[in-house]
Amino acid sequence: MELQAPVMGARLAHKMMSTRNLTMDPRNFHQFVMHRVTEILETTLVELWRWIPSKLNVTDGATKVTGQTQQETWITDPQFLKNDASNWPISKKQESIIDTSEIRKHVMTTHTKSVVMFNANDFSNWRRLYRAVALVLLFTDRLQAKCAGRDMPATATKAHVSKAKMLLYKQSQSIAFAAELKTLSAGTALPKGSRLAGLNAYLDIDRVLRTRGRLNAVDIAEDAITLAHGCRITNLIVRSFHEKYHHLAHETIINDIKNSSYISRLRVLHKSVRNTCQRCKINRAVPRPPHMAPIPRARVGNFERPFTYTGVDYFGP
To answer: What is the pLDDT of residue 62?
Structure first.
């Protein structure tokens, strides 16, 4: 081991000293050019290569159509090769034009989505779901504040929570009411066959689908948000109201949900939530009394003399 250590160190030092700093990066070229340029740079030195102008290049007679006859120079050689190497043509780098036709072109494409999708099936609680989305929004705000040089927010605020809920509402609506959203976005009325035809549905400023009610004159009243019956997000919202009222006051739960949301077949959905609630199952459970055993023959014996069946307690007081 003591002998291997200096050997490895010597090999590493030799490798570092033998590495040449190349001014050209062949990885910028296409594969065909890249591999051949790399092989040339690895097997030869850059100082060994010289430049020849096109007018003195003999090989052009075999690869290009020219009006000049180069038979003599083709057989012999260019005249400047007979002179001293110091008199050979020199490349003027400041006048040369860089050929970029073989450089690899990087094409980048982007794909944007109009709606951010969150997997609501991974959550069993409505509060945990919108809090998780609020933390995602907090993270994006922190990144934007850091890039802009502003103070970064430390915790999620009420604005993050409200925005998170709106994003989840829009996600649920984009899946269940895709055709209705497309129609309303175009500024046309819903067809008669739509599920929301008679509900005065419209899109608010946040592009959330709402149902216009009759309490517009009341300042505290707000139009109900339209949610689908079979959506996971809707199920979590109804379950949160069910747990808020401690699994009781079912009619109060229905009225409270209707104040903020419109859900078709709400009573059916609330009943399914109650049936799947484990606490409600335990509260509805009723003990089943066991069947009584048949009476022994000694107790029902008829037409028998007294004390025919007698029991003696030997361990009594």
So the answer is: 72
The alpha carbon dihedral of 207, 208, 214, 216 has a sign of negative
Are 195 and 181 a contacting pair, CB within 8 Å? no
pLDDT tens sequence across 275-294: 999 999 999 899 888 999 98
Which amino acid is present at 302?
N
Tally Cβ neighbours within 10 Å of residue 152.
12
Please name the residue that has the structure tokens 């069993």.
124
**SS3 call for 233:** helix
* Residue linked to tokens 């307690």: 313
In terms of C-beta density within 10 A (0-12 exposed, 13-18 middle, 19 or more buried), how is residue 267 classed?
A: exposed
Are residues 309 and 298 in contact, defined by beta-carbon separation less than 8 angstroms? Answer: yes
Fold of 167-284: Endonuclease III; domain 1 (1.10.340)
CA distance 204 to 225: 10
How many other C-beta atoms are found inside a 10 Å radius of the C-beta of residue 50?
A: 10
For the chain, domain boundaries: 9-87, 120-166, 167-284
This prediction's pTM: 0.55
